[in-house]
Write a structure and sequence with these properties.
8 strands; 2 domains; six-stranded antiparallel β-sheet; 3 helices; about 25% strand; single chain; two-stranded antiparallel ribbon; alpha+beta
Length: about 150
């Protein structure tokens, strides 16, 4: 009798977890704004099987415990690339694909018009986790966030 009760409790527990995951997926799927929907999916916590590292919670070696922010800041401070082909500028929230495969979105509401071919750019780290895209030969840098 105890075994059957334990199995029943275990199946109820697993079913409620699956139901919660399904509800969370449905909630994200119902968000109309693409950026907000992606942020919802990215915030979901996925179950981790034994031996697998959860990408939502990267782990650092124990000697970095308490110094997580410094470990993040010790990574590259800039990424250099170029925008392949003709570049005509951007509007608010535009996405810019770089030759290295990264895609960055303008987040500061700025707009610029250009007529450039293969412009060189650098994406640099700012303060408080911000990123800025510098265009070679120009004295402005829109705030961006990486979307791919």
């Amino acid at each position: 009798m105890k075994t059957r009760a334990l199995l029943l409790l275990l199946s109820i527990s697993m079913s409620s977890a699956a139901l919660a995951d399904d509800l969370e997926l449905r909630r994200c799927r119902g968000i109309a704004d693409a950026s907000a929907r992606l942020a919802c999916y990215d915030a979901m916590v996925l179950p981790v099987s034994q031996g697998e590292v959860n990408p939502a919670k990267p782990t650092l070696p124990s000697e970095h415990f308490g110094f997580e922010q410094q470990a993040i800041q010790s990574g590259p401070q800039t990424i250099d690339s170029y925008i392949p082909g003709r570049f005509e500028g951007w509007d608010s929230n535009a996405r810019i694909a770089l030759a290295n495969g990264q895609v960055w979105q303008i987040t500061d509401g700025s707009k610029r018009a250009f007529n450039l071919t293969d412009p060189k750019v650098s994406v640099r780290r700012g303060i408080f986790g911000a990123f800025f895209m510098d265009f070679e030969g120009y004295n402005f840098a829109p705030k961006v966030r990486r979307v791919q």
